[in-house]
Amino acid sequence: MSVGGFLLALVAIFVAAKLFGEIAERLGQPAVLGEIIGGIVVGVSGLGLVDARDHTIHLLSELGVILLLFVIGLSTDLKKLMSVGDSATAVAVVGVALPFAGGAALGHLLGFPTMVAVLLGASLTATSVGITARVLSDLGHLQDDESQVVLGAAVVDDVIGLVLLTIISTLAAGGALNTPAILRIVGVAFGFVIVAIVLGSYLAPRLLRLVERIDLARGLFFASMVFAFLLAYIAQRVGSAVIIGSFAAGLVLARTNKAKEIEKEIHDIAQFFIPIFFVVIGAALDLRTLNPFDPGARRFLLIGLGLTAVGIVGKVAAGFIVTRKDLRKIVIGVGMMPRGEVGLIFAQVGLSTKLLSDGLYSAVALMVMLTTLLTPPLLRRLLIAKTPSGPLDEVDLVFDAPSD
Amino acid sequence: MSVGGFLLALVAIFVAAKLFGEIAERLGQPAVLGEIIGGIVVGVSGLGLVDARDHTIHLLSELGVILLLFVIGLSTDLKKLMSVGDSATAVAVVGVALPFAGGAALGHLLGFPTMVAVLLGASLTATSVGITARVLSDLGHLQDDESQVVLGAAVVDDVIGLVLLTIISTLAAGGALNTPAILRIVGVAFGFVIVAIVLGSYLAPRLLRLVERIDLARGLFFASMVFAFLLAYIAQRVGSAVIIGSFAAGLVLARTNKAKEIEKEIHDIAQFFIPIFFVVIGAALDLRTLNPFDPGARRFLLIGLGLTAVGIVGKVAAGFIVTRKDLRKIVIGVGMMPRGEVGLIFAQVGLSTKLLSDGLYSAVALMVMLTTLLTPPLLRRLLIAKTPSGPLDEVDLVFDAPSD
Questions:
Q1: Mean pLDDT computed over every residue of chain B
Q2: Which of B7, B230, B261 has the most A C-beta neighbours within 10 Å, making it the best mutation to test the interface with A?
Q3: Is residue A12 in some structural domain?
């Protein structure tokens, strides 16, 4: 991509994000829904200005979701999150098991080989924590107890998804796995979160004091970004996910006395990169592969709808595992619905190992698309029903700061 | 580059920029000198964490210099710039002609073919407006009359450089050029600046009123970035340079009543991207090709020093073309000294068309390196001598806003 093409893509991303985000909000929907639809308009299904497969665009969108999870972590109270830890873990485990079993069963019923059925099931497992967190934040409900369960469950489920991905990639490539190998993968993925939070909680206040003492211009701005990027990097290196790393960085800094200040410092950078992530999600959706008037595509359209149904029922049902009486289980279940990049990564593993055909890849993409686009309006209805005073009046620190 | 490698590169860039920028400032030098040296430390000559040839890193550094020139444009008074227009044009023309003639003569004396000598001369022509503007801004002297001459001359000289580049690329590739073709190139390159400023001055206030009326959250932030990127894109498309486009965008917005507000809005984004440009300049410098203990490298080291001498003398002499008595001609000449990316682009054209050997490329790189590293301390000495009250006490709006 030339510098000119890059500038044009950025302009398309920002115009699409602001324009469609604003329209969504005026229709009472979360801005993120508009940003994804704006992405469809400027992406491969529309004007073709934003190429989601371009390496630089991909890296910038990753930076967007890394900063999003950092900001979400910064406004998350670790104690509160831990207090719903058992509910979150239960929701995550059931919310992985049910869609996995359902997807694999559907694949089996349709007569696909076992490994293909397993891949279809796996692609239904991981909630896109980015989309869910952003919707809750857009609606001003990030601090609700239900939201905390969803956030915790989405993080746990992301880690489970990574473990599954490692296992399935190995199997799909024809490799063998034994119990010690699986246990090691699980141990590293979960161990990182614990070590990052424990060690980070020790180091973060010292880092902040150091920055204060050497009195760098904009020291806090650069130090907190470096901290978030570094934890994201380490997370990926040890076999966890970048967004788990930046979320941990946010959680840790949230416990220092500089949390509010850091939130202000990185606000503009977050606002620059986060819309790139959501527009790129939309830009990657190829609607043409799902043309109902194309007889060849019709079968995969139906399989995609089947996967979507299994995916929705599985996650919503998982919400009902929670035993606490004061929580609205349906909100939790719907909050877990959106699949995102992780679902597509499973499908891509299938595509590259020739286990999935282009048609089945499109079916998975349809499931990702529908669960992603249905969640924002559904969650909004549920949350507005809960607080009739109007959640839209709440001011969200991160995403809706007024321009003056 | 993987997401992990990208994050590590960003961490290296920010740590190097802040650390060495701070050290430079405490030694009384402009921060930009520290950022370039920091780049050498983390780049190809040092730790190898930042690969200046990586496509994504290159695009982000371009975004940095585009935003830098936008910010510089925003704090530039078009009328004041125009009032020194004749001096600036004279400095630019002489400052291109002298180094070009000197470099070509040096190449001829050393027995190189004509086209090689022409390429060496051409690589000496273009001042890096980014480095110069940043040094003047770091030192708080951007509004001096001398600085306005330098800024205007650097912009004109960048356009002349582009025209030269088009002509030489055509010749180097074995193509032929006639007078109408050359006139067309010159016309487009200069025409863009005029059209952008005239049309932009008409459109900008209307754009700002529109943004205000539809009342977007952070509308000014996104609108001004989109405006700058769009003009940069158009500039490149019509055959001018991206930085000329964003500089014109800044000049135009500077004349609206929102200039100060826009400067505040884009401040953090500029602070994020601008250091990437300067660290990458340092990271690209390969000191190993100039090892004086390597007999093979010694000849090119001497040629590089010769080019440096010609480059410095040519630009400094050009400063003395100015006839206004109240201006310090030496400040103007030294301000025009730093060569940057454009010099290297000429050398790369030579490398790719096999006209320049690796050794001659390194000689040009040495010239770029020395003129770039010598300018900040030299300018500082000259400017401090001019205002003994201490320019470091001035507060620079853009680059040194305190963190609290």
A1: 88
A2: B7
A3: no
> A7 and B233 in contact by Cβ < 8 A?
yes
CB burial of A201-221 (b: ≥16 within 10 Å; e: otherwise) equals beebeebbeebeeeebbbbbb
Q: Which residue range is the domain that position B157 belongs to?
A: 66-271+296-393
Structure tokens at A324: 């606490």
Alpha-carbon distance B49 to nearest alpha carbon in chain A (angstroms): 13
Distance from CA of B2 to the nearest CA of A (A): 8
Residue B361 lies in a domain: yes
8 Å CB contact between A297 and A345: no
Residue with tokens 């996995």: A100
Alpha-carbon distance B68 to nearest alpha carbon in chain A (angstroms): 15
pLDDT digits (tens, 9 = 90+) for A227-241: 999 999 999 888 788
Q: Quick check: B403 and A229 CB within 8 A?
A: no
Average pLDDT over residues B122-132: 88
End-to-end CA distance of chain B: 36
Residue A22 in domain: no
Say what the pLDDT of residue B22 is.
Answer: 92
Asked if the interface predicted TM-score (ipTM) of this complex is over 0.90, the answer is no
Q: How many CB pairs under 8 A join A and B?
A: 124
The DSSP code for A266 is T
Q: How many domains does chain A have?
A: 1
Tokens (6 digits) for A292: 């109902």
Q: What's the pLDDT score for residue B94? A: 95
CATH code, A95: 1.20.1530.20
Helix (H) or strand (E) holding A387: none
Rounded Cα distance, A164 and A101, in Å = 13
The Cβ of residue A384 has, within 10 Å, a number of other Cβ atoms equal to: 16
For residue B60, the model assigns a pLDDT of 97
* Chain B residues whose beta carbon lies within 8 Å of the beta carbon of residue A403: 216-221, 265
Contact A1 B271 (CB under 8 A): no
B159 falls within a domain: yes
A194, two tokens: 């614990």
| Range A119-127 average pLDDT | 92
Structure tokens of A5? 């093409």
Q: Hey, what amino acid is at A370?
A: L
| Whether residue B402 has pLDDT greater than 70 | no
Q: State pTM to two decimals.
A: 0.87
Report which residue type is found at B345: I
Residue A59: list chain B partners with CB under 8 A.
Answer: 1, 3, 6, 56
Per residue in A297-348, pLDDT (tens digit) is 888 999 999 999 999 999 999 999 988 888 889 999 999 999 877 787 788 7
* Nearest CB to A400; choose among B217, B221, B402: B217
What are the structure tokens assigned to A231, written together? 């934890």
Kindly list the residues from chain B whose CB atom is less than 8 angstroms away from the CB atom of residue A1: 55, 59
DSSP secondary-structure letter at B120? Answer: H
Q: Which residue of B has its CA nearest to A239?
A: B4
Distance of alpha carbon B326 from its chain centroid, rounded?
Answer: 26
Nearest Cα residue in chain B from A258: B404
